[in-house]
Amino acid sequence: MQATPQGGIKPWLLLSPALTALFFLLIIPTAFVAVYSLWLSSATGLATREWTLSNWTSMLADPFYWAILWQTLRIALEGTIGCALMGYPVAYFLARCRLRNKSFLVLLLLLPFWISYIIRTLSWINILGANGLINTLLEALGAIDAPLQMLYNEVAVVLGLIHYLLPFMILNIYVVLEGLDRNIEASAASLGAPPFRVFLEVTLPLSLPGLAAGGLLCFVLGAGTYVTPMILGGPQNAMFATLIYDTIIIQLNWPMGAAMSMLLLMLLGGIVMLYNRFLGLGQIYKSLAG
Amino acid sequence: MSEAAVELRGIHKRYGDVVAVETIDMAVQSGEFLTFLGPSGCGKTTTLRMIAGLESPSAGDILIKGRRVNDVPIHKRNLGIVFQNYALFPHRSVYDNVAFGLRYRKCSKDEIRTRVREALRLVQLEAMEERYPAALSGGQQQRVALARAIVINPDLLLLDEPLSALDANLREDMRLELKRIQRETAITTLFITHDQSEALAMSDRIAVMSNGRVEQLDTPQVVYNRPTSRFCANFLGNANVMGGRVVGGEPGAWRVDAGGREWLSASTDTWRQGESVAVIVRAEHFQLDVSSVDGEVGNALQARIETVDYLGMSARYIIRPEQGETLELIHGVHHQPLQAGTWVRVWMPADDVILLPPGDVTALAPNDAARLSPEDATRLPPEDAAVGKGAS
Description:
The complex is a heterodimer.
Chain A: H1 10-36, E1 39-41, E2 47-51, H2 54-61, H3 63-96, H4 102-110, H5 117-128, H6 133-140, H7 154-179, H8 182-190, H9 195-223, H10 227-232, H11 240-250, H12 254-278, H13 282-289
Antiparallel strand pairs in A: 1-2
Helix pairs in contact in A: 1-12, 3-7, 3-9, 5-7, 7-9, 7-13, 8-9, 11-12
Chain B: E1 6-15, E2 18-28, E3 33-37, H1 44-52, E4 59-64, E5 67-68, E6 79-82, H2 94-99, H3 109-122, H4 138-150, E7 156-160, H5 168-185, E8 189-193, H6 196-202, E9 205-210, E10 213-218, H7 220-225, H8 230-235, E11 239-250, E12 253-258, E13 261-265, E14 276-282, E15 300-310, E16 314-321, E17 327-332, E18 343-347, E19 353-356, H9 368-371, H10 375-378
Parallel strand pairs in B: 3-8, 3-9, 6-7, 7-8
Antiparallel strand pairs in B: 1-2, 1-4, 4-5, 9-10, 11-12, 11-14, 12-13, 14-19, 15-16, 15-18, 16-17
Helix pairs in contact in B: 3-4
């Protein structure tokens, strides 16, 4: 892409609908949240319009929040790694298969998005639950006497995250592999590299941009989710967004919830900015567009 | 030249119902520079990919240095391949690109360094070791790709249209360069191109391909001057290809009727009187130097120049003889080409009138000149005949 030398007002005019939407739907609400985080909460749950930093200071001083934040990042990272390990082979297969209806396979990948994320998450209860598929099956086979406890732990949360995030990872890797020049691999092979070495020395390094882009998307989406830990996790598996939900909906402490939201936003925003600084966001745009 | 470096025995390739390569039987001598020349879709790339091991033939055997390699995977064939788009490793420096193949051949660190430097010197890129491919020009990337392919001292160097992505001037330089490197290393080289000038300039032998077949396999001079099929005659250079009939004569001096006039041909083949033949007359074999010719010489004709296609070093003329169909003629130009409308006297040496079996006429795009109807010619006033000036 080349920057057009043309300056002036025209680009801004063309962008104005998008900028207007962004302003009213994103900037303004975020500003509201930011303002809320600086108001004092009252016993009724309504915020008093009195400026204070107390929400921020009490949050930042409380090791509980930091522990949950750390746990959030860890679970998101586990989910991301799981997605990478499970997604790469699928993306590789999609990119390399010579089936005529390859585009249909890619469409299948997007199929889960047509079903509500919450329902998809709830479906795991039917699989992992005490009366779920696995336990019923194992009991019928006589392998176990009492149902195994598979829900409400970190593994279930990570599993749910992978289920939710896997398509994003696959698509990002797929797009890069699909665009990879096969002659580069052929060259490596002709020079004496056996297939697995070709993969390690050429295919994998050249597909890292897709892996990194998919990783970022999965990590940010994973770290921001509250549905998965709420449905599949136990009390000890709370993630930061779950905490925000509790604070706002249950404790009705809007200012505190707002401060927590801002903290998570700044943290994930910082990660995205770091990524963009060192790797560039271009790859993500490419795979989302195509 | 003991045994053939490469031998193709009845190679055939089909994809489903589509035949990519009909049948190819040929041998490439060790140290030879052999070019597969043909239009796109003629099967030349498929043939190269089968030799490389990127495709497997549906039938037939491929032998490299006398060893059947049909079931030998690409990484065990000891080949150097240069692709049209270079296909360098973008994440490796020039040095590491060239060293790649050596790391899979039991070479010590020192030996790798020596050989990489030597290969880079051969392609005149010694100073670029540390650079990454993205920081190189197209021509430089091409040289790195070549160095990477020859550093492993391959049994066979495969070049898949390596010059076509370069711009015109660079392409001619790289042509000489490639030929020099090939001569110095004496690596058997198979070169794929659709560009006849590349093929003529570089090859020891050319295999002209069409529809999955090798039409002619010979030295550039023979392929150019003595095409053995109508396809070769049409594909290389500009030729007048006419359907004709043998009127009489004997080997070395045949009279044939084609394109509305009689031609003398020195063809040494034996033809029957009345037999259908294709008469091929190369556009640049016409002689325009009229002073050396008197009117009684065979194949002399008066013609008016219809159109002039100025090409710089030469000009392509469509000439309309007093009788018969129009002909295409190419002649050197010093300063000014001849003007349209000028009358010229041209002649064609009987040696250069080539007779071939008529072959499949419909498979060929008819020559522009031959497509014009002969009736048009009669409308031209022969009185205006004037000898061309200015050319040659």
